[in-house]
């Protein structure tokens, strides 16, 4: 634990002092002469969204915008359905130029020609890969390895998410951790925020004598927030749980299920907090329940790479005979994120 805390402090310090957050600025000039600075996010439904460090996401009525400029490239959807990419610079009231530094010339446009800024693709995806490990020799020989991956694909009405992770550790030739899990979930949005879901989970943990735990179920969920700064959803439903143990009696039972997921950029482009948990409680015996969670921080490094600091906590109220109810794991690793 002390070693983990030391690495945690060191990683945060390195991210702040050696990998400063990229500055993606822009400026909006309003028709009344006021100016607002921040990161241009999107233009849709007559509102221009500006992400700021001082007030979060701000929405400005498009009709009140005189012009704007950016210091990074964006995609601009025009009224004729074409899309151009580049930086924007203000050249006068109601006028901008869009172009790229390595291209010849800028294209002059009237604000009335713009229909969207950063229009979302019809199918969006995002995901990440994370690896971590450690090794030591001397008085104690130990090694540990951790890996995880997640992919989410989203259209207007549908969302599919798959994830997997695994842990292995040994000390003085004695295995101290060996577990793996994989999950899949499909969401169908009944409205902008309400969705129906179907899910499955597969888990294996040799040190818990668990050959395989599998779940299959469905229910309803609600997407409270889904922005670049904050994501929050909650789900509730029913699942069937089947547990195959090495030495204990195998079990199968119907259960209630709940889940909560949060992503929050505490400091934009510097620190992102994440939390995901799900729980299962038997419909036959409320004392028989299982809870799994992962939470941590992601600190941007260079490009799409980030430092991942994570704590996993699992609780099984009725484990296999002779096994502990709780499992707690600390992980420090390197991650890579991707999206369109």
Concise account of the structure shown:
With 340 residues, the chain is mostly beta strands. The chain has two domains: 26-117, no CATH class; 124-339, Porin (Beta Barrel), CATH 2.40.160.40. The protein has one helix spanning 2-17; strands at residues 26-30, 35-44, 47-52, 56-61, 65-70, 74-78, 83-92, 95-99, 106-110, 114-117, 124-136, 142-154, 158-171, 174-189, 194-205, 210-226, 230-245, 251-267, 271-282, 289-300, 305-316, 326-339.
Q: Biggest β-sheet, characterized?
A: 12 strands, antiparallel, barrel
Query: How far is the N terminus from the C terminus?
Result: 38 Å
The portion of residues assigned to helices is under 10%
What is the N-to-C succession of helices and strands? HEEEEEEEEEEEEEEEEEEEEEE
Adjacency order of strands in the biggest sheet: 11-12-13-14-15-16-17-18-19-20-21-22
CATH topology of the largest domain: Porin
Percent strand: over 45%
CATH class descriptor of the largest domain: Mainly Beta
Shape: elongated
Count of discrete alpha- or pi-helical segments spanning 4 or more residues: 1
- Overall pLDDT level: 89
- The structure class reads mainly beta
User: Into how many domains do the coordinates divide?
Assistant: 2
User: Compute the gyration radius: what is it?
Assistant: 24 Å
């Amino acid at each position: 634990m002390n070693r983990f805390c030391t690495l945690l402090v060191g990683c945060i310090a390195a991210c702040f002092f050696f990998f400063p957050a990229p500055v993606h600025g822009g400026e909006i000039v309003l028709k009344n002469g006021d100016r607002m600075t921040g990161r241009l996010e999107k233009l849709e439904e007559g509102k221009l969204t500006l992400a700021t460090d001082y007030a979060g996401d701000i929405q400005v009525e498009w009709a009140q915008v005189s012009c704007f400029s950016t210091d990074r490239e964006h995609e601009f959807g025009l009224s004729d359905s074409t899309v151009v990419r580049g930086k924007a610079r203000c050249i006068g009231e109601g006028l901008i130029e869009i172009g790229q530094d390595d291209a010849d010339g800028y294209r002059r446009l009237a604000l009335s020609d713009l229909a969207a800024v950063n229009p979302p693709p019809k199918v969006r995806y995002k995901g990440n890969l994370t690896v971590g490990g450690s090794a030591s020799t001397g008085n104690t020989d130990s090694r540990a390895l951790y890996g995880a991956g997640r992919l989410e694909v989203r259209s207007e009405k549908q969302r599919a998410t798959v994830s997997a992770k695994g842990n292995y550790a040994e000390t003085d030739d004695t295995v101290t951790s060996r577990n793996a899990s994989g999950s899949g979930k499909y969401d169908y949005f009944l409205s902008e925020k309400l969705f129906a879901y179907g899910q499955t989970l597969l888990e294996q943990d040799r040190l818990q004598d668990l050959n395989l735990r599998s779940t299959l179920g469905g229910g309803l969920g609600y997407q409270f927030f889904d922005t670049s700064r904050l994501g929050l959803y909650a789900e509730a439903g029913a699942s069937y749980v089947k547990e195959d143990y090495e030495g204990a009696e195998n079990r199968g039972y119907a259960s209630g299920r709940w889940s909560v997921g949060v992503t929050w950029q505490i400091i934009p482009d510097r620190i992102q907090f994440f939390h995901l948990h799900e729980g299962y409680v038997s419909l036959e015996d409320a004392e028989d329940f299982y809870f799994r969670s992962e939470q941590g921080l992601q600190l941007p490094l260079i490009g799409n790479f980030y430092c991942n600091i994570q704590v996993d906590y699992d609780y099984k109220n009725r484990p296999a005979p002779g096994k502990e109810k709780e499992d707690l794991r600390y992980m420090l690793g390197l991650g890579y994120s991707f999206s369109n």
